[in-house]
Amino acid sequence: MGFIHEGVRFESELMNEAERLRDLLDGSMDPSELESYKEYYKLAERIYGSEALDEIGIISPKEVEEKLEPSGNSEFTHDVILPIPKSDLKEEISDTKGRTGRRRTFVMLVGVIGLILISSNIFVGIDSVLGLCEDTEKIGDVELVATPAVNGNTLTIFWSAKNVTIGEEYSITWDISQNGSQELVSSGGINMIANGNSFTHSTNATVQIEPYSYSSQLLLNGTIIATAGGSYESTQVSTMSTIQTTKLCEDNPRLKLTEIGNYKNIDSWGQVGEGEIIDGMLLVIFAFISLFGMTKKKK
What pTM does this model have? Predict the structure, then answer.
């Protein structure tokens, strides 16, 4: 029985081959069959020529096999996440560490510079380096002299202001009293713009009981810069002229941080070694920033 089946199968194959050959000769064979069978392709190539086969788009079985073979440049049709090579991964980690290191170095520098500036201002004074403060008047530059004169019951006081700045507006205020400063008989003031390096002024007061006394102040922009006073008695006359001790930049080089917006004013400056609350707070903040920048992040 097996022999009979084999004979039937062989006869069927011969019939199929005969049909393919007939299709090849009359030109009705499917191009895919030519591409699949080398023998038929070679036979068709001899009959029709390779150029004719190329024109109708039939490729040789050899080219089909080459296309089906995997190549190193083949593209994937699916999205595949490939593992990062170790060398690239090391470079990426190194770059990340480098950026982190630079940021921490910058933070540390900000903290250290802040500490230096605040400490220098407290213990040395920033004005000794930058010279931002501006003095109004220096000690000894301006002097106020008062001279009394009595004619009967009239006491006249002559004031003389020396070494003033031309164009500045000055004020003189005074109090005149009698009976040993117990009774105030005259009080007043005057404003004057200096046309030269000195100016004078006088005022009269009616007095009766000796001794007479007087006191006066010379002001610039509301600040007392010199004083003059004294007393008068028939037997003796005593006068006193003093210069008000003014605040100087050279003695107050520390900038008050709460007054930083008005740094040109002498009142915005203080003596060194006398820090304020804000100075202490900033020292703590900058110290913390410095420590944060120097501390390495744990892995």
Answer: 0.36
Q: Which of 111-115, 167-171, 269-273 has the lowest mean pLDDT?
A: 269-273
Tokens, residue 187: 């009080």
Number of Cβ within a 10 Å radius of residue 78 = 4
Q: Is the pLDDT of residue 173 over 60?
A: yes
**Highest mean pLDDT pick, 44-53, 163-172, 249-258:** 163-172
pLDDT at 171: 93
Fold annotation for 143-242: Immunoglobulin-like (2.60.40)
Distance CA 250, CA 270 (A): 10
Ranges of each domain in the chain: 2-68, 83-134+249-299, 143-242
Beta strand 169-178 with 183-193 is antiparallel
pLDDT of res. 249: 75
Query: What's the mean pLDDT when you consider all of the chain?
Result: 75
Q: How many CB atoms lie within 10 A of CB 177?
A: 21
Strands 269-270 and 254-255: antiparallel
Q: For 25-46, how does the pLDDT look when each residue is reduced to its tens digit (9 = 90+)?
A: 666 667 667 666 677 677 777 7
